[in-house]
Amino acid sequence: MMAVHGLETKYGLDLILHTPGGNMAATESIVSYLKQKFGNDIRAIVPQIAMSGGTMIACSCKEIVMGRQSNLGPVDPQLNGVPAAGVIEEFKKAHAEIKGDPSRVQVWQFILNKYPPSFLGQCENAFDRAVNFVRKELESNMFSELPKRQKASRARRAVRALTDFSGNKGHDRHIHYDELKAIGLNVSQLESSQTFQDLVLSVHHCYMHSLMNTNAFKIIENHKGVAFVKQQQAFQIAGVHSPIQGPPA
Fold this sequence. Notes:
alpha/beta; three-stranded antiparallel sheet; globular
């Protein structure tokens, strides 16, 4: 996080998020680090998408600024590409059907045998970890000024909506401004200020252009021009064209 080094942290942080998501541990570490630097004075700005782990980071902020076409996504931890909540629901369904009709075990054994030992426990732990993280972050920042009971109730409502596997019906579902507002998140519209929107989109498009049209695949930069850039470089071995990661530029 060298781009944060030297910043005047007393002014807070506007964090522009554009991500399909990522590892839960990385998400927790990013939030922890930023809060150590800026406390709760962090505003998430989502010009396009912030899915999965990006949604969790956004929920840790005091406010989420979104455009009309922007979206967050379900908080739905995946284990080896398999949705943890889906596995939990499948086991619950199997348990209910077998309890009602023991002959159903012959059908379910072929389905459940695809999961390795302890996999259900791993899914339950991953799901609980995600739920508790988002709930705790909402209560400690976005809803921190509400009365205790109202804060807890509002956090549960938002978390329930974001983690509803049956309702969301997919890890890639886009959840837009109106729905996020309806479940109680503190969201505002990027279009409310033309000047601010122009500034945000200028930064966003600049980085998207750089990432899509250069060898750079990771860029961290602050307003002082302090930057860290990782690039891919191509090399030729025995007629095989292969990219490698080059040194930071």
